[in-house]
Design brief:
The strands form five sheets. Strands 17-14-11-8-5-21-22-25-28-31-34-37 form a twelve-stranded mixed beta sheet, with no helix packed on it. Strands 1-23-26-29-32-35-38 form a seven-stranded parallel beta sheet, with no helix packed on it. A seven-stranded mixed beta sheet has the order 2-3-6-9-12-15-18, with no helix packed on it. The chain is mainly β. The protein is elongated. About 10% of the residues lie in helices and about 40% in strands.
């Protein structure tokens, strides 16, 4: 990845991400861009929230948790290592920190807090500014490899890809709305309609909602979509074993012979039926 690339330029959902009883659960890190709303609780390794992010449930971070100024958390915040809270953060429940707590001015914690390590009261540097400072310092001293590792972790190129929610997103049990492209890994179980610029979905996923994009939509093997698949002007590609429990509407359609669409199909342009043996059009 180029160090100049914006790490929050797409919705990236890594392999194995699930929604469990109104909690968004992933094995890796969770990075949420500023001014986003996440109606779920969040469980991950490290959890990072930009400015004015609103979380509708608890946050459980195995490692660190960093919330920038004006963030709002409806429930508890449980942190396995260190916590960093910017000014005017509001937590509707308890804050429990196993490590150190770095806290800004006018932070409100409705049900109290506990930290086992040091407590420092100041205004922590905003998260993305913090990462920029670290990257700049590493590059200044010639540690390009270390800087690249941090940039890759933010962009999803690291071995354990983070869950990345771009700036200004609205994520809920009803819909996942982003203005960027969306990428979904393998083996995910998601609730809500996915709305994005384009959608690329991996294999063996279960989506309890519809897919809608302005551009292309690609659905990987053995994925089940409990809703419609719709694009305004792009191509829909359905791989082997895909089942759409709804309608498909698109400009062009590439439909594998082993994919199933329960509803109607509306393709304004070219429609191809793909074979299993070589991917060419079926005769």
């Amino acid at each position: 990845m180029s160090l100049g690339r914006d790490p929050l330029d797409a919705l990236e959902i890594p392999d194995g991400t699930t929604v469990e009883e109104h909690d968004l659960v992933t094995d890796g890190d969770v990075i949420v861009g500023g001014q986003s709303t996440v109606e779920f609780g969040v469980r991950g390794r490290n959890v990072v929230g930009g400015e004015r992010v609103r979380f509708g449930g608890d946050i459980e971070a195995e490692g660190d948790c960093r919330l920038d100024m004006w963030c709002d958390v409806a429930g508890n915040v449980l942190v396995g290592d260190d916590a960093y809270l910017g000014e005017r953060v509001h937590i509707g429940g308890q804050l429990m920190v196993s490590g150190d707590l770095d806290i800004g001015d006018d932070v409100e914690i409705d049900e109290g807090f506990e930290a086992n390590g040091w407590i420092v009261i100041r205004n922590p540097v905003p998260t993305l500014v913090f990462y920029f400072i670290v990257l700049s310092q590493l590059l200044r001293v010639g540690e390009a490899d270390a800087a690249e590792e941090i940039a890759d972790a933010l962009s999803g190129d690291a071995p354990d890809d983070p869950l990345v929610i771009p700036r200004g997103s609205d994520i809920s049990d009803d819909a996942w709305r982003v203005s960027t492209p969306a990428t979904v890994g393998d083996g995910c179980r998601l609730h809500g309609n996915l709305r994005a610029r384009s959608i690329e979905m991996g294999t063996d996923n279960n989506v309890f909602g519809s897919l809608r994009a302005r551009g292309d939509i690609s659905v990987g093997d053995d994925t089940r979509i409990h809703g419609d698949v719709t694009t305004r002007g792009g191509t829909v590609r359905l791989e082997p074993g895909v089942r759409v429990l709804g309608d498909v509407s698109c400009a062009d359609l590439e439909l594998h012979e082993d994919a199933v669409v329960d509803g109607s199909i509306r393709s304004r342009g070219e429609m191809q039926i793909l074979r299993t043996d070589d991917g060419r059009d079926a005769e």
